[in-house]
Amino acid sequence: MRIRVIVPITSFSEDYLEDRRKRLSKEALPMTELEFVSVKKGPITIESFYEEELAAIDLLENVKKAEEDGVDAVIIWCSGDPAVHAARELVKIPVVGPGEASFILAALLAHKFTVISPLERDIVRYENMAKILGIESKLASVRPLGITVLGLRSNREKAVERIILLSEKAIKEDGAHAIVLGCLGMFGMAKEVQEKIGIPVIDPGIAALKIAELLVQTGLSFSKLTYPYPPKKES
Amino acid sequence: MRIRVIVPITSFSEDYLEDRRKRLSKEALPMTELEFVSVKKGPITIESFYEEELAAIDLLENVKKAEEDGVDAVIIWCSGDPAVHAARELVKIPVVGPGEASFILAALLAHKFTVISPLERDIVRYENMAKILGIESKLASVRPLGITVLGLRSNREKAVERIILLSEKAIKEDGAHAIVLGCLGMFGMAKEVQEKIGIPVIDPGIAALKIAELLVQTGLSFSKLTYPYPPKKES
Amino acid sequence: MRIRVIVPITSFSEDYLEDRRKRLSKEALPMTELEFVSVKKGPITIESFYEEELAAIDLLENVKKAEEDGVDAVIIWCSGDPAVHAARELVKIPVVGPGEASFILAALLAHKFTVISPLERDIVRYENMAKILGIESKLASVRPLGITVLGLRSNREKAVERIILLSEKAIKEDGAHAIVLGCLGMFGMAKEVQEKIGIPVIDPGIAALKIAELLVQTGLSFSKLTYPYPPKKES
Amino acid sequence: MRIRVIVPITSFSEDYLEDRRKRLSKEALPMTELEFVSVKKGPITIESFYEEELAAIDLLENVKKAEEDGVDAVIIWCSGDPAVHAARELVKIPVVGPGEASFILAALLAHKFTVISPLERDIVRYENMAKILGIESKLASVRPLGITVLGLRSNREKAVERIILLSEKAIKEDGAHAIVLGCLGMFGMAKEVQEKIGIPVIDPGIAALKIAELLVQTGLSFSKLTYPYPPKKES
Amino acid sequence: MRIRVIVPITSFSEDYLEDRRKRLSKEALPMTELEFVSVKKGPITIESFYEEELAAIDLLENVKKAEEDGVDAVIIWCSGDPAVHAARELVKIPVVGPGEASFILAALLAHKFTVISPLERDIVRYENMAKILGIESKLASVRPLGITVLGLRSNREKAVERIILLSEKAIKEDGAHAIVLGCLGMFGMAKEVQEKIGIPVIDPGIAALKIAELLVQTGLSFSKLTYPYPPKKES
Amino acid sequence: MRIRVIVPITSFSEDYLEDRRKRLSKEALPMTELEFVSVKKGPITIESFYEEELAAIDLLENVKKAEEDGVDAVIIWCSGDPAVHAARELVKIPVVGPGEASFILAALLAHKFTVISPLERDIVRYENMAKILGIESKLASVRPLGITVLGLRSNREKAVERIILLSEKAIKEDGAHAIVLGCLGMFGMAKEVQEKIGIPVIDPGIAALKIAELLVQTGLSFSKLTYPYPPKKES
């Protein structure tokens, strides 16, 4: 199966894209063919509702093109799931958001979970995401690292250390029984954290990949009653 | 005070814009100066999440420009409140969404309320809006007219008739005690419907105007902790 | 328009009433004519459910009289909104409670808000008010000052200082993005606090006035399905 | 133990009071001494929030007097539980509301329950009561008989018949697994209905009595943190 | 009336059973005849979902036998209410779980309550119990003692001391207005704690007894629509 | 990877077990080795809470044995997820319940979903399951077929027909946007139904398999804070 990852930001060099592809491919099924593309127009990183909007148009074009190219599923490479509702309207293939994919797995695996986010402002986004998915009673807390997306890339070690620290606080003070890494800038850090803290730590990139593979295998996709095609206009 | 209404769709002619401005001005305070502008690039109408994204970029530019022009508050002329969260990040002045403005007034005035929407697909949007505002227990139902936005414009009489019919059903079958008109295509129809059905009927255009005026008068705006400015990127 | 403020307690001298009228008038629209009346029989202040009951009968008579006198809207000058549901049954004009008016504005302007109340016991009242309005997921916390209503009057400076202190705690510890002043004894303090803490601070007196003006202007009132007239008795 | 039932309406003759006392005594424990008193000033019946307020003052005096007289618990003989929060502030002995008592028993005994109320307007009251008790997810529906309180007294047979009819509808259409009779005017009808429909039917008078007896026996009463004494005023 | 207490664990000696019977009898009505029986096969104590399952089969046989023996109600002597839903399917007589009985009384008596549990792991069980009863908004917190069930028995004094300590914390930090003792190992400790902390403290054993007596007296039992008999199998 | 399916009922002949294994294997990954075992002691089918208890002991022994045998994940072949919480306490490997697995996928794919259950009594079980998972706002309804588990096996055609009929009703009357088949007796029917009704239809057997495979691949399992090992007893 072909799964295309669409990166909605412009700060991924070709090399970086290829690096991500290789790393994620290690988590993929043998029959999965992974492609990474990035938007040409869009924000450097997405850390605000505004930047989600900046990313949307090129992202949506990419989603449509993916289906035309015969791709089986699409992943939006951002935990805020930008434009994911709009994208699902445009196509029949699954469009997976890493945020939602992580949240439902965490809701399954644990009584309550905490999201580790880059910044304080992400609390609004993730609490709203939980409300829309209906699982707010499973969300123990959102704990911000105080590290920007670019900061996560440039200082991986410090980030992992701080994620471990906040996860331990979340367990102790918020009653968290699982951790969701709330940014693709934390991709690849889950296993290390999980080994340290001993509870499930969900990597948004892997969660999205695995849910995408699951959907393609089962022939399931997002409901066309929830995400119908945009209507034709009467003339 | 100056309030600028930004129309996020391209199907308003200059005349139509002016007509809307005049009609809404009748509802405005004497000290309110109303301006209507429309996006140059965007969808014909907004009836999907996708079209919200199409509207966003030009809309957001307009919001920024409004503040630069010294406008006191902005209204997004669409009940789906497209890009309203992003817009609030960009400016300090209030950016009012007619959907949210209508919902909180209805929640105040009645035990439960029903939203009359153009299409069945709007149920998802409005139930999610209620969840995010936290008032889902006050939302009796969303009742779709089965009439598109353009259809509302071209056949006003039929629309009013059908709104009355569905409102009566909502009272009887869903326990609605107030009605929210869930599309700016129904602007100006509330009073007629209210006279017929005898319970509060909230016009989204007027609700947005009055909330905007209220905010300007009181010096209140949307919280900058909920909608902080988009972050500067580290270099 | 004529708006009558009914003070449900007996500790307002004529001078104090006139002082409040003048101060609130500064916030009113030019076309608003404000009247302040106080109950003749009732409690000194309202700090318990019991004192709400003591206030009710004279208050309700005043509400009826207000409508008979041709007043356009009534405000009950107490954030606990005493007898407000009963009052709405008696008349067609809007009867605005400062508590509810503040809560819905805060729910609109911020992801979450905190109520600063006089006493610890007020937590019950305000959490129940949020439940009935349906917005409990927006209520970050209720933070009591530990100052009685009379104490608020006699030591304004200390009150403002403590409100600022608790608001900052609410932001930091409870995730509050806006503040509601939960007592009319704090009337006139919002702007000062807002300047200090930088997020929306809602004054219950001004919120009630502005919502009352909004309702009169739009011809909206509380639903007669939610608040029908008390039934005639069969004989 | 002495339990005093306070009737908050004025339409109970001395004979009727005595008749109610005798009937309720059949349900009481051998050690329970039942007293029925009625307010002297108050409404004929309570069918509105307004009439609750009319009943409150005399009712509250009676509650205080009951404690002074050495009574062990008080029951307010009205399913709307008028002034019950205020009353609990005034005394240490339990003040039981038949509405709340019925609701918690129904929440225990069944997945969901329906309240049969006299009038359509009661829906607001009972849905709000469920919200405050926190059990709205257990409330299947409120079904109004369309019979006033006086009508319940004057035509018992018709009332029972209609309660059975609505209960069967509630089972079939609303998923009710238990029934709460939502008015003391239906006192004594539960057993008859229960025999007919085969699911638990809760009589508010008996529920209140049994909860009152339970509390007295166990030395439990309402929390003084939830219902503290009204504060003394500073001078 | 005959009430049979079924102890679902095997660590009660005959003497200990008799001791419990005597102690609980002091709380019973004069007309109540109390019987204590213990399962023959089952866990030493119940501190996990697994041990609930170990207890279930013998427990359920005992419940059936109780009804055959003409017993009027059954109490499962464990606050986790093991197999209580299954048990109610098998019989018509009330099967009372001390956990549920305590929760609904606490929900009635206080704005919010805290459960004091033996171990940290009990948080999951009690938060889920509150969700199913629908009263999660009334549950302030679950506070674990860090003492096993056997530890509660062997060191009563230390347990009481620690319950008082945690209750005071729950009042101060979690907003608790009542306390539920969340283990039958704390049976008989409530009064002592209540005297110390001054808010209602609910003993699960007494709560279960009193609710059982209440149900027998009123002829109420659990709904057979919620707990229908297990179906006969088609052959 | 090795995944063992444990059938908690005794009515599967060896042939039937093998047939199920073959059918489910068609849905499995190439690297998945599927095993089907059935309890020796247990109910014929599970249609009540009581029968869940009958199934538990042998089921739990099988779960422990599976881990000892080096199996990577276990599936309980029953949509009611019997003893699944207890089972997770006993082992480290994932124990997947088809009910929970289906619910979270449906919550992801659709605004709201309906569960098609065999019998009316299943409504309680599935509404409680949704409450515990926290997704009750996503559950549009539970629609019972009125067909027993054995009936599903003996008359497949009628069952499919009726599932289609109820699914269409659920879409039209309850707002369902996806369907969950709420019994393993409907295993293998999803694709047929999905083709007919055009929205996602989730097969509980396939959902459980795919979630189990996903967990094994990612090294995730259920949180040991939510499901800790049963405690050793002090002696």
TrEMBL record, chains A, B, C, D, E, F:
Signal peptide: none annotated. InterPro entries: Asp/Glu/hydantoin_racemase, Hydantoin_racemase-like, Iso_Racemase_Enz_sf. It comes from the Archaea. GO terms for molecular function: amino-acid racemase activity. Belongs to the HyuE racemase family. PANTHER family: PROTEIN DCG1. This is Hydrogenase expression protein HupH. It comes from Candidatus Methanodesulfokora washburnensis.
